[in-house]
Amino acid sequence: MNDLLFEMALPPDFRWDVNLDYMNRSPLECLYVPDASGVNRLFAFSGGPALIRAAAAGDRLKVMLLAGVMPAPQEQQDLAVFIAEWFDLDRDLRPFYALAAADPLLAPLAERERGLRIIALPGLFEALCWAILGQQVNLAFAYKLKERLTQRYGGSLEWQGRTYYHFPRPDVFGDVSEEELCTLQLTRNKARAVLEVARLLAAGELSREELLALPPQEAEARLLRIRGVGPWTSQYVRMRCLRDTTAFPAGDVGLQNAVKFLAGMDRKPTPAELIEMAARWKGWEAYAVFYLWRALY
């Protein structure tokens, strides 16, 4: 099976190679599989799982069904929205590149990585869980925790000798205990936070739509009311899930290390110093962070 579902126009400032390069940064990623020309990802539809491939062909993105169920027409529309958000396809980056060209830290990265989009996490549950799992651990261990959570509670499909997974739905955690999650090596606090997020989403007490309808600072305040969500997590979710270009996780260790390296500092900058620095990136703070991260990984 290799059925073309639809095609999408790619914006002028988009390069498939640099986006795939970013997606290839860790072999531990369990939710999608990139290769030299495209990326495969498993989705859960009403009729069952479907393995979807996105691959660029000139100025078009071809979206194909590789295996599994054929998504219904409305599901295909929803899939197109997901992919557009995943690769931030509706964003005009010309203002960011104009800003970056005049910035000593960003200019070399913007030239080298031109065409890179913030690779989003459009699912709020996945985004919150990923941020929670990544709190105060290195990236490799965060990936392992996500893999364990996904393999235990998510759906799967085998195709051509590989098993693909999709992230679990919040409602599957209704009968899961903190102790059960701790067997996956989540800390007690992380287990508690994941279950709280799952409960809120399953009960309809929290949604991405609700957060997107709020002004950025109110959305952040709403996120901060969730147990286990602090300033770094809320900023990260605003950046990667809500696609808020003004989000700025000043406490991010990777950002601090990137600025230390690029600026030739003998120490990591403080969050206060980074916030002061970010004034020159006003309106595009999240993109500045994403490009600065590329100095390290």
Indicate the topology:
Blueprint: E1 3-9, H1 16-23, E2 32-34, E3 38-45, E4 48-57, E5 60-68, H2 73-86, H3 94-101, H4 106-112, H5 124-133, H6 139-153, E6 155-159, E7 162-166, H7 178-182, H8 188-202, H9 208-212, H10 216-224, H11 231-240, H12 253-263, H13 271-277, H14 285-293
Antiparallel strand pairs: 1-5, 2-3, 3-4, 4-5, 6-7
Keywords, separated by commas or semicolons:
single chain, 297 residues, alpha+beta, TATA-Binding Protein, Endonuclease Iii, domain 2, Endonuclease III, domain 1, 3 domains, five-stranded antiparallel β-sheet, two-stranded antiparallel sheet
Description:
With 297 residues, the chain is an alpha+beta fold. The protein has 14 helices and 7 strands. Helix 5 runs antiparallel to helix 8, helix 5 crosses helix 11 and helix 10 crosses helix 11. The chain folds into 3 domains: 88 residues, DNA-3-methyladenine glycosylase AlkA, N-terminal domain (TATA-Binding Protein), CATH 3.30.310; 82 residues, Endonuclease Iii, domain 2 (Orthogonal Bundle); 117 residues, Hypothetical protein, domain 2 (Endonuclease III, domain 1). Helices cover 45% and strands 16% of the residues. The strands form 2 sheets. A 5-stranded antiparallel β-sheet has the order 1-5-4-3-2, with helices on one face. The protein has a two-stranded antiparallel ribbon with strand order 6-7.
